[in-house]
Write a structure and sequence with these properties.
rod-shaped
Length: about 40
């Protein structure tokens, strides 16, 4: 799990940067996970 934490952080950051380029502002967790998974985590 220790390796997963920084990996997820990097993924969220890259997703945020990607959306900032396109001019869309969204939560990284909402975009990196499908809606089905998102409802399970909430």
């Amino acid at each position: 799990m220790g390796n997963d934490v920084p990996h997820l952080a990097l993924r969220s950051i890259s997703v945020l940067l990607h959306h900032q380029k396109t001019g869309i502002k969204v939560l990284p967790l909402q975009h990196t996970k499908p809606k089905s998974d998102n409802t399970q985590e909430s």
